[in-house]
Queue: 3 jobs
Job 1
Amino acid sequence: MSEKKSKGQELQKELAYKKQNYYEAAGKEERKAIFEYAEGYKAFLDAAKTEREACDYAVEAAKKCGFSEYRFGDPLKAGDKKYFVNRGKSVVVFRVGSKNLEEDGMRLIASHIDAPRIDIKQNPLYEDSGMAFLKTHYYGGIKKYQWTAIPLALHGVVVLKDGTKVTVRVGESPKDPVFYINDLLPHLGGEQMSGHANKLIDGEQLNVLVGGLPYDDKDVSEKIKLSVLSVLHKQYGICEEDFLSAELSAVPAYGARDVGFDRALIGAYGHDDRVCAYPALTALLWNETEHTVLAMLVDKEEIGSEGTTGIQCKVYEDLMEEISLAMGANFRKVRMASKCLSSDVTAAYDPNFANVYERNNSAILSCGTAMCKFTGARGKSGSNDANAEFVGEVRKMFKEGGVVWQTAELGKVDVGGGGTVAKFVAQLNIDTVDLGVPVISMHAPWEVVSKADVYSNYKAFLAFMK
């Protein structure tokens, strides 16, 4: 028989705020749903290690759910299910709702599908001391030393001199070779280890090892380089000049795996930000809504959202305007009535590095998806900083949708910071707030998230759509 709660205990329950572990809050059926959903997410991660592959995955998934391709100028009506592909590297999947667009606006979920990686340079191949290497230029914010001495796969496309586009994906099958970035043995690493961590490996040392077998002809020079070129030509029709029009990336060769004896966590490459892109995509594909909803899976966030496939490109605004025009709505009114969840990951509190976090305002693993009212650095520089009214509106949605969630910021004030696509969407006069999954070891070749937080993110998007 439970003891009666004191007046103070009752008041504390009513007035105090405490984060809630989703696994503890979930019943047996919901916990089962969490684990089942995680299996689909892991399959997505293994299939989509680049933004091109994530875009392709989203398109195929959309087709299976009855969505069809949209082109500017196509007619639209309530109930239409469409996807719009931007240069094969970003995609917007959307449903046209029945509600008045000028009054209701659009519900936007903006996530990015690029991730930190090692890109291959345009004139990369060389031979030295019995080995052939590819020169690289890393993409996004990484700790360079983390990318040495691990198995790497090569993904991307090569456009040949005749215009043919060839897809490359080597290192994922157990039968494939893998690739490698050399590190220095500890026996000779005294000087290296005495330096700053950022200087353990220089950018120009991130050379990918791709061969070591000399071509069998005593009359040619650079035999190992020629051996690599001969393999590339035989398998893909590639000659060295074709690297000039190639987009190739080295990514970790291992797949997503459960972490821990209880399998509560997922370790994988690319959680940032595919852990938000997959729930955004599946929430929209699997569920009907009266609102007009767009899942915007974009590129280039890791380098400032630039270029023709980043969120700063006008094509996304143009698409929204096209939808408005097709539905006979004034686009300026639509923008003003629209709402956006800028869905990107945040840092999970790590007790092993507690000195860089302010615990009260850090995301705790398995306590649900995390809302960041502001991002930016130090004095909120570069942040959207959502207004209280919109945060309150989203809170109400989550309460009605039974979403377990939390608030967070990215580390202590003056320690660091980061940015998302939120500020670019907000510039369109659209209320926007950041919402995403907490990540351990963000931007490492292998990051860790909680399955509960992934599913919480999915439920949050459902509440937002409904």
Job 2
Amino acid sequence: MNLVDAFASAASRNAQKTALFWGHAEYSYEQLWRQSLWVQGRLGEEQGVRRGDRIGLLLRNRPEFVAALFGSLATGASVVPINNFLKPEEVEFVVRDAGIRVLISQEDLRPVTEEVQSHIEGLRVLMADGIPAEGCGGDGRGCGLGVGEADLAVIIYTSGTTGRPKGAMLTHGNLLHNVESCRQVLAAVDHDRFVLLLPMFHSFMLCVCVFLPLIVGGSIVLVRSLHPPKNVLFEIAHRQATILPAIPQFFRALLDPSVPTDLPLRLCISGAAPLPVQTLTDFNRKFPFPLLEGYGLSEASPVVSFTPISGPWKAGSIGLPIANVEVTVQDDSGRVLPPGEVGEICVRGGNVMTGYWNQPEETAKALRNGWLLTGDVGYQDADGFSYITDRKKDMLLVHGMNVYPREIEEVLYRHPGVREAAVIGQSDAHRGEHAVAFVALNDHQAIDEKELLAFMRAHLADYKVPRKMHFLDALPRNAAGKVLKTELRRQYGK
């Protein structure tokens, strides 16, 4: 079994059923399958894509993402979803690192793809805008021929502590395992309609809002625009959506008194960032349907744990492991700790990645005796519920997306006027967190905040750019010369 077979099976059972809602448009299973076949044909016949190649998807949220995804997989190639908020040089790094042969993108991102193409000889671009509405005929014979569960399906790039992203390698089996576990824990059925409003390149959305509904025979309600927020509420009500996965900031916005409580939802899922207990409590007091918290990471396809729908619900907990997944808390030596003791959250199961693309050293750091070391610190209670107390990795979560200070610091150091730089995170009611930069300039340099921010925006995605900047004479350091970020947090607040 592979992901293409699973989708093809659902499409054959539900040919005329609406698989995806997009504004006023509706796409049937048959239509999405035929569009996928069209993409497969173009990639194979015109681009010469072969089994084992990598295909990049640089797309905003749009129906063609589905055809690009399954059409690429149908060639036997692996898919690399790329964050469409990245700047050209960031996209170029992913394309080079993954060895991407063909990039599927869209017309309004052409300036990005053309700049990347100008630096990478032989890179080809296929515009999703050209995918015909009805796709093409054929029965799909040969789709994913010979591809099995052990074959690489998707490479998800997640920011690394070294300042460069790492590609988590997920097989067809990893993702099918996670889809089945999520189906069980969410009690997902073919009449469920999943609201998709976060970026489709995100591993959370890819599994829970694309693969899951399209494999169980459900439907996707793909929201065209999040602004104003009432657009989302209209889509939920108009399309009778039943499951809403989103980030904590969105659920906090739903607490506004103007938001009605008579929505057709049966379940809301908070993921991608820690859910404040107050938001959880206020939400479940206001609405007749529950908001439940889950936990995951790209390296685990991505879902690891979830709060049981039937209870018990424990505020502050990320719930119990999903079906066929194990979660333990271990110390640095790999010893499993008893309930109540704090250590590193570790995961084992068929959803765990095979490793990082072309990074055996980083893979060895992340996988130990079959366990995935998440980098998150926490504990379990006597009932097996997990709680995260801190992050071992020096990472921020901005709008649910990983941001590593080292990456920002590396860009700051590229400015000729910067002598020292350090970045920490600060809580943000709207973004979850935002980056705060501390900079010491070279002698006789007259650089203002505006100039430095403009420099960073040219090299970093906008959500990574610090929202605050402090200019210091020198950064606090210990005797070994290491910057004391704890002192910066103490003085300026985290």
Job 3
Amino acid sequence: MSIQGPCALLSVSDKTGLLPFARTLDEAGWTLVSTGGTRQHLEDGGLEVVAVSELTGFPEMFDGRVKTLHPLIHGGVLARRNHEGDRAEMAEHDVPDIRLVAVNLYPFEETVKDGASLEDASEMIDIGGPTLLRAAAKNHATQTVVCDPDDYERVGEAIVGEEVTEGMRKSLAKKAFRHTGNYDAAIVDYFDGEVSDEDALPSEWPIGLRRQSQLRYGENPHQPGALYKEPLGDDLGGFEQLHGKDLSYNNLVDLDAAVQIADEFDDPTCAIIKHTNPAGCATGENLLDAYNDALKCDPMSAFGGIAAFTRPVGADVAEAMHDRFWEVICAPSYSDEAMEYLTQRKNVRILRMPGELPEVGRALRATLFGVLVQGTDPRIEFDRDSMDVPTDREPTEEEWRALEFNWRVCKHVKSNAIVFGRERRTVGVGAGQMSRVDAVEFAIQKAREETDGCVVASDAFFPFRDGPDTAYEAGATAIIQPGGSRNDSEVIEACDEHDMAMVMTGNRHFRH
């Protein structure tokens, strides 16, 4: 079948906005070429359409698996109009002059998001669509490729005005390559859940991130910021914002820290975060007790902080929080009375966390040298039998419980990290100091003379005995730390001199 003039190949799963776009092309004198459901949609809209099968002389085959994979189609997409030899071959073989490709892909992500069998997922892996997009994008010098319905209007206006510039074609090609790359990344993401890698950090790792929201700025006003999600991830990781201003970059970073600390505990827990570090954390018989004890740790730093809870927030907790300024509050749910209290402050961001927190398998950090990737530090499994007690004195049962609680919190404090605390709450936190003894002294300062009878958790080993000596002088009775220093014997000796119990876990929890 011979077609004169420019052609537009239209084959889409998402038909949003397609009909007005196709009418614009038709009125501009373009021939519309299409497949299956897209063709029917256009014809139902009153447009004349040439079927791909009419053009190729081959029917759609294998339940639609093969439709556009044909030399007459891809020849029309890939031929170089500025190449004399290509033009001659087009004329010789009656190859249609396809100047525009509008394609979007099978809804793979939507199919697998709520669970799908491997067979069903495989059927939603588009082959012809990505091939057409990549071919048209490759030939962007004379080819216009459209993969996003949001671009239909501006492309149609440019075609009518004969103003489809090289810059526009290049920009659309970049978008198409990004689109197919993300599509492939979503497929890899799905198969990651089906097949475990032998290597925890594979040699190649396509990451297809999609921008979920544009943030006002990053850490500072002069830095642009945005939130992206992985291909098969939920918006906001499944968290739901119920009230307040839009979340900022710093809100999201701090909220991540708060929720991860709270998730270390099974009992009613409140974690209060400021600048990614805990200003206080406590568990209690009920959530109100946990909140009040967490706030005692550092009420000044808690101002403008983030509070995360492990239980539904009721009116009692909301009323207790009402007279303080909070940036973000996050909990599994809220009573109606609690929401009445909390929403009286229009700017506080109130979030509901999902029933199950999203899994974060790998952590990324951009550096001047490349992207660093590591496995995440999982929730602590506190096994006393696997730990070493090298001191003369064993911890008492009360000390053991206090050591476990504060060890869990210390894992989430910036290194060098020291936490003074009791059985169910933190008392003083020393975060991000350049020496470990400085971290001890800072934690004591923050504790405001409440350290007598406390235990101490240290995220990494004590390099010298000055840390335990300083903790003892403040009234600490027991220490938990990883061990592994060349001076461990000196540190153990210091603890024995002070009749302090010390536990060595064998596991470090640096947080840079």
